[in-house]
Amino acid sequence: MATDKKITIPQLFEMKARGEKITMLTAYDYPTAVLMDRAGIEVVLVGDSVGNNVLGYESTVPVTLEEMLHHTKAVRRGLKRAFLIGDMPFLSFNVSHEQAITNAGRFLKEAGVDAVKLEGGEEMAERVKALERAGIAVMGHIGFTPQRASQLGGAGHVQGRDEERARELLKDARSLEEAGAFSIVLEKIPWPLAELITKSVKIPTMGIGAGPYCDGQVLVTHDVLGLSGLSLKFAKRYVDLSSTIEGALKAFKEDVKAKKFPTVEEHSFSMPEDVLKKLAP
Ligand code: KIV
Hints:
The chain is of the alpha/beta class.
């Protein structure tokens, strides 16, 4: 049932408990954030995927904390109801607890997020604990973690098909839960493993390329809207905005070249005749 009340972590837990799916999408700007709230999306992530989708980088690795804060502030201004998460970019949390708390703190104090997300499993459990102790809610992210793409066999490599990696991912999820993470993203893992992980933790799991049995579903909005140019097995394109926008841009160009836009009657401002007469040579 849609209400105007702000989404909270206890509500996300209640949704898991009653089997109601949680929806989560990325946003990088104010107008998209406004539409997210209007559509009733419960969780909005300012993902470091802003790097590929908006900033023109080839991966998420070059994205800086300052860039993330800039986009997160814009999204914050557009949201009233959705739960807002800021994604910690590569090397903004990996060095030390102090570094992670300082940088995550900036997401809360300067950009007004409700929580941060960071990539990593068991090896990040102590970091998550330190953040939680500092009063910062953390969403984990395991499976295919784009910031470590080269270590994981390249972009798009499905994780956990073999027993050893599957056991690692199960352990990662339990370690993050024990450390106090309030939720975990499961990216590109086989659906039966995602189902197993979802059943073995009490915190909500958010799948992307992890099948239908996670507690919620997250996608990159540019994939949903047909703006990324990607055709991904695990995503669903609901509209082809690239074609729509390109068509509109071409139509504008044709109108201007053909002198059909602007017209005096429809798109221009008049002025009093007597003033005009005074100006004429
Ligand atoms: O940056 C991002 O968009 C993400 C999602 C894929 C979960 O981390």
